[in-house]
Amino acid sequence: MSRKLLRAMAGGLVGLALAVAASAHGPTTSYSSSVWRFGDDPEAVRVSLQARLSDLRLVAPALGGDSGALDAWLQSQLQLRRGSPCSAESASVPIPTADPRDHAREWSLRCPGQGAFELSVGIFFDALPGHVHVARIVLPGGDAYERVFVAGSEPTRLDAEGGGAQPGIGDYLRLGVVHIFAGLDHLAFLLALLLVATSVREVATLVTGFTVAHSFTLAAAVLQWIEPHASAVEALIGLSIVVVALENFALTSSRRLGRHIVASLALCGAAASVAAATGHLAVPTAALAGIVLFSVCYLLLQRHTPRPVRLRWFVALVFGGIHGFGFAGQLVELGVPAGRVAGSLLGFNLGVELGQLAIVIVCWPLLRAWVHQRPLAVQVGSSAVLAAGLFWFLERSLS
Questions:
Q1: 175 touches 348 (CB < 8 A)
Q2: Which listed site, 49, 149, 188, 217, has its alpha carbon 20 to 30 Å from 67?
């Protein structure tokens, strides 16, 4: 076995270790939401909270199965003040959820005194630095606005009267930036694309294709033109990373190895499609088979093209659409109010683009300096990305 192959395999093992470590510390992105309802009584506030059970088990393992202790801990992580801390007026009670994986509770607060309300959120951030919490403030007349909390967020002043309430476009812009930086799978896909990009023009083409596609599918999902299956989308995002990593190998290897890569992808893809059809993978068979067929045809087309790198914008466009559905998942699950959809969508998408642009500006020159004229460097980096993508695909499609 050649030293080059051994080095590439070592890179793959490093990537697998990174993927396992990322999984052991929780999902790439997670979120929770709360609703703060202000009524005619200026001292009474009704609070409801919804979060993933898996996140709760991760951040509060010492509480075990004691639901009372868990609910008390949750209340302590959401602090509303009006000069002094508001006090719980009632014990929390369960509320129904559409997803059995969610934990939802509701309780009442009493906030005597005068002046502005101030909300601080500490939930999840120590254990899950990429966590996002969206607080919706419902005013006495029924109008609402949102505030976004991430790690390091300062306590936020709330306008319970609605006079200065804003739709929160800036908050959603920040949410988009956080989402792209906390989304390890999106970062892996983007970096895999950049590994073999050799010019500013090529980078601009790739980023444009990715941006156009994910902007469209993000809007389509949030506006409910299309309702993708969330878990299937997450699994296919992992598969998209695998395909781009294999493409990098094909572009930097001999034609013979390129044929083996295409054949291996076709064989493994066919096996995965059969597993999906028999219920062993939680991915729609047609979607999985379609992605595999597209990928095999794309790699075969590359082999007969004088400048195969010029085709890469197409794979960025196609897979960018899948990633757009992944971006939309957070906004859809958080339930943006109808009157705030346009503003939240605009702010969130701009945030994603700004985060993506910052990553490209910082990372691409560093990648070029590392892989310049060195195919082995591309293969080591791609093997790490390949291992991570394969891990994410299997973990998400088997769960």
A1: yes
A2: 149
> Quick one: three-class SS letters along the chain?
CCHHHHHHHHHHHHHHHHHHHHHHCCCCCEEEEEEEEECCCCCEEEEEEEEEHHHHHHHCHHHCCCHHHHHHHHHHHEEEEECEECEECCCCEECCCCCCCEEEEEEEEECCCCCCEEEEECCCCCCCCCEEEEEEEECCCCCEEEEEECCCCCCEEECCCCCCCCCCHHHHHHHHHHHHHHCHHHHHHHHHHHHCCCCHHHHHHHHHHHHHHHHHHHHHHHCCCCCCCHHHHHHHHHHHHHHHHHHHHHHCCCHHHHHHHHHHHHHHHHHHHHHHHCCCCCCCHHHHHHHHHHHHHHHHHHHCCCCHHHHHHHHHHHHHHHHHHHHHHHHHHHCCCHHHHHHHHHHHHHHHHHHHHHHHHHHHHHHHHHHCCCHHHHHHHHHHHHHHHHHHHHHHHHC
Among residues 187, 171, 96, which one has the least CA distance to residue 137? Answer: 171
Q: Which residues of 200-216 are buried (b: 16+ CB within 10 A; e: fewer)?
A: eebbebbbebbbebbbb
What is the per-residue pLDDT for 166? Answer: 53
List the structure tokens of 126: 């120590």
Query: pLDDT of 17-35, one tens digit each?
Result: 444 333 333 344 567 888 8
| Torsion angles phi and psi, residue 204, rounded to 5 | -60, -40
Q: What is the pLDDT of residues 221-246, one digit of tens each?
A: 888 888 887 778 888 999 999 999 99
Residue 92 has pLDDT above 60, yes or no: yes
What are 102's two structure tokens?
């969610």
Rounded CA gap, 390 and 382, in Å? 12
pLDDT (average), residues 136-143: 82
Phi/psi class of residue 137: alpha, beta or left (left: φ > 0; alpha: ψ in -120 to 50)? beta
Residue 2: pLDDT over 80: no
**Average pLDDT for residues 246-264, to the nearest whole number?**
85
Q: What strands lie across the sheet with 156-158, from one edge to the other?
A: 84-85, 78-82, 117-121, 156-158
Strands 87-88 and 102-110: antiparallel
Supply the pLDDT for residue 274: 93
In one letter, which amino acid is 154?
E
Report the distance separating Cα 135 and Cα 273, nearest Å: 41
Q: Inform me whether the pLDDT recorded for 5 exceeds 50.
A: no
